[in-house]
Queue: 4 jobs
Job 1
Amino acid sequence: MEFPYTRLITSENETAELAGEFIRDIAAGSIVILNGNLGAGKTFFIKKALETLGIRNVNSPTFAIVNEYYNNSKIYHFDFYRINNIRELFDIGFNDYMNDTDSITFIEWGELFKEILPRERIEIKITLNEDLTRKFEFEKYG
């Protein structure tokens, strides 16, 4: 996948295919930010990407803040939605997670604390359209 990249998705199956294509091109050390309204499909996209890697039982870390998954890959999955201030992230070792070059890190709702996101990252904006299609926009920074 070359960046920037945009695709209109019309079904869950297409989202799963896109997630599988995306994760195959992502290397350890990558930070992936997902932005979009509630119900846009951020967690679903991550779940399908991780299923491609053989990781099951993926769920939203909304209350836990971060979930960790392991198999041949090490994955960190953050959700900033319920974070009240940056200190909460630093208290759980956010910088250590960001500096783990052996992992792939996904962050939902990254736009809420954009000032602490690493310079090098991939951002995915998911827009839920009125006809229930979704527009995925991928951009690479750094």
Job 2
Amino acid sequence: MTNIELQRWRARVGISQEKAAELLGVHRVTFDNWESGKYPISLAVELACQAYDAVYPGASHLGKNIVKQVDEFKSAYLFKYKKEPKGKHLVYAPWSSTKYMIIDFTPNGSQQ
């Protein structure tokens, strides 16, 4: 996947860079570096984008659904454990064909 294809994917899905970064579990700066061509886009990112397209082709509500799910997970985690989630967690994702996704709650959002 090229940086132009990534830009087109984000436009097709209808989300901001910030929401796209959150969707993919990375920091917004990392996503911006992919879109600008500074960093190569990994196969994992390309496959994640394709998976979202397969489940929600052209759906602008995709980002809202995922962000809502992540926010609900954070709230539940905070309620149960009395602290913010850190690291990678397996999260129920009803919009996904596999029904689960791994979300990285690393403070910098770094992911390879």
Job 3
Amino acid sequence: MKPDESEHPIQAARKQALFREVNEQVWLLQRKWGTPVEVDFICECADETCSAAIQVATAEYQRVRSNPRHFVVAPEHFFEAAEILVERGAGRWIVEVTEAARPVVEATDPRRGRE
């Protein structure tokens, strides 16, 4: 299910930032236990009811997290009103929030000041 297309990009970004925080906790636990080649993360789309699992290679996850405006979503979970499609891959897409949402996702970046 897609979010309401009339939803404001900042509201969508807040949802995505929450899912990103969950995935960061998964990532930290995986690093503690030994980093596997691929990790199951939750879709970081703007749909607050989504719980789709996405397998992402650890190197790719690091690449996505290097830009606080990028999020990994399940295919077709692209929210055109709030995102720009950056990349399509097998089993996952990479999206970037629009300029309006940039301050929200940068301020809530869990890696800000950590790495």
Job 4
Amino acid sequence: MSYVIRIFERPYYYEMGTLEFGTIGSSVWFVIISMTTVGYGGMFPSTVPGRACTIVAVLIGAVILSVLISVIDKSLTLEDKQKEALRITI
């Protein structure tokens, strides 16, 4: 996603002369911050395709984080048999 956003922001650089996504590192940082929904606001895409890719990245990040949290919750939750085994041993 970071490389796609960088490609879409290239025409804006030629028109305005400012490129916030000049390096791949800054693009990766932007996508990581956007996908984790932190969104510092220091960088943002200026073109419509760049903004569309950012929306897709944010949605994918929300899905990935919700699945990850759900898996962690499920693995830490004890079943009834496990709770009973803990009560017997304690």
